[in-house]
Design a protein that fits this description.
alpha+beta; Tetrahydropterin Synthase, Chain A; GTP Cyclohydrolase I, Chain A, domain 1; 3-stranded antiparallel beta sheet; single chain; Helicase, Ruva Protein, domain 3; 6 strands; 17% strand
Amino acid sequence: MEISLDLVKKLREKTGAGISDCKKALTESNGDFEKAIEFLRKKGAATSQKRSDRIAKEGLILAKASADKNEAAIVEVNCETDFVARSDTFQKLAATVLESVFTVKSPEVNVILNSKANSGNTIQQLLDETTASVGEKVEIKRTEYFKSNSGFFCEYNHVGNKVASIIEIEGKLTDEGITLGNDLAMQVVAMKPLTIDRNGISKEMIEKEKEIYRVQAINEGKAENIADRIASNKVEKFYEENCLLEQEFVKEQGKTVSDIIKFVNSVSGGEYKVKTMVRYQLGETIM
């Protein structure tokens, strides 16, 4: 049967697949629009399987706090090239994945893949359709979901969406609190802290760092007692560089993040504390 150009265009707009693929799908489905969509989804799934050994190392990081600041989510959605990552099709997919995390209220990728988007398709189907459309492996690498019982969330998405962060502030939701949260989320992206405070760094890590500093000093000819003192001083520096509360505040030299929180508490009459911190950077290894 003859397939009209309008029907081909309609299928292309619906699925994002190429014109030749749409025409073939309609031909194989005898012009049945829904069956043609199913045909393309199956083709997308097959394409995804063929590309399973490809490395999807590009993509987008998106973080978002809900309108009431009571929930937050962050996702990393991967593809193979930056060209595809910057496309409207992929950016729309990543945004849909992010919204689905809020819908299912779970960070489990399998739960997200089986959830339905506003279009009625599952997230897995959308991934398959995008794979067929852009010709690259597309996958959800990781997600996290948070809900606060005693505070609020702020997020920071760096330009280009290659890195983003979420901060949970314990305390009353106010304009001062939100400004503080936004600043600290930016701090996390810029300064890459490992933990909020010293309690988050294991004793084993500190002992390892201290031994490295000590051996370095001895190798430089320092006496053992001097090497011990140097190692202790460098451990303190390690804390200052890797604990959020001890880092120098990026927006005001000479003051630590802890100093800024104390100042905001004093002028606002609030009692703000950092409760949760998460930072995603594109392509980093998941431990």
